[in-house]
Task: structure prediction
Amino acid sequence: MASSHPAPKQGSIGRRTSIAVSWLILWRAISRVLGIGTTIVLARLLVPADFGIVAMAMSVEGAIQTFALFPVHDALMRRREREAHLYDTAFTIQAARAIGVAILLAIGAPFAADWFHEPRLLPLVLVLAISSAANGFENIGMVDLHREMRFDVDVKISVLPSLLQLLVTLGVAWFTHSYWALLAGLTVRRFTRVGMTYAFLPMRPRFSLAGWRDLIGFSTWLAIIGIVSTVWERIDTFVVGPIFGPTGLGLYTLAAQVGRLPMTDLLEPAFAAMFASFASTERSGAAGSGMRRSLLVAGALVMLLAPITLVLSAEAAHFVTLLLGAKWAATVPLIQVMAWMCLFAPLGFVGRSALLASGRVRSVFLIVVAATLVRTVLVVLAGRSGALGLVIWADVAAIAFEGLVFAIYLGIHTDGAGRFLAGTLRMAVALGLATLALRGLGWGWHDAAPPPGDVLGSGIMGRGAAALLALARSGMLVCAIYGASLLAGWWLCGRPDGAERLIGATLAEMLPARLRRGKVALTDTKLAETAPIGLPPSTTPAPIEAPDTRPPA
Result:
């Protein structure tokens, strides 16, 4: 039966994609500002144990959610026709799954409290069960917004729930200084978002299972990858929680949030664009044509993240002073190690998107399974040692293992291994010189931020200003030495077609059209090799698709 839903708007795919990407970037910026602002305030109103106990509850919910995964949204997005009975079936499955998850959460709440040795976990999980059930009744018409790349409407639907979450969370935390503030804000956001989807969208789905045969068999491999990914993402919480308690888990959680900022703020927003780029290249060229650029893109992202990673690790004490406050000083050595995870993360991000776009889902599954087994073993062994720092090292080792496996696979199946290794060596030399400069000046890797000088004062504002100055000082030094060394190494090697040239092409694309017509030193090579990061080698941007994503832990 043909659908009565409105057809997608016609027009330039490139223009629609540009608008969609702009809205995604805008919403990402808004959400990150709200998130970081909330974290800064809550870090001063709550204690590490509060964050830890909520992390326990969220991990229990996340584990059950993913094991009950059924990707009805992806199934609808990949169908050519919009059939009303399939939308109704997808809504019914979505609602039934949410109710089932809520029931499992309610049943499993006592067992979760016993596993983590934390009786306060029981009421938290029960409240999460209620809000989780509400999530399942979100208007299935949201799928059409994503099919048509109407992310402007999606942002409008998301703004009010996020603002209410912020106000409720901060308000409850201010008056109660309790971990319930985090859960109160989350519950309000979930219920409000469901209501907003019906206020903005005309679709009114009905309960029906008429099209279940068309949806039930979709993408078995992706569903299995999602289940394995749950083990990857949650194993650290289920190990750290029982051994180190709510306080230890709270320190671990906040250290991970700060240490992974380059990943969450730079890599994750680029993932959809990278997938669209590789998928577009695959559709317009021979099989595997998208993979041929993957190592080049990965090398460019590693080069861009390397100086950020170095500054974050070296100045972790000042980041903690600026973002969290003095009572979180125990997270400083954890962030110093966690930051290096960002150096290997691009390999996993790019490798996964390239292989999925080329249809090699089974290969992704095998690599994810291998990486998950390695991370499980390392984290469990590190947890048994009783040292939280060793758990962080296990995390970094696991993400490095996954990234290197993806890089080896792409190196075997493409011809870009030599250029990737050469670029990585030049990057390592430049990063080493910047590290030696920081060490020589004694500017980094302190266990605690030194007190500000007399001019700045010893209060909160003085410590914050001193932290900002230290970050700016180290950042400028690292960028100057790293950038000059990298460019000099590339020039001495004969300006090869590598990651540096790709970065130059990307930067050139950001210039105004009048300047872009001039000659740019880094872009005098084939378009197929130097298309900007995240865009296909064509004059029209590729439409954003919805891959099965899993950000590295």
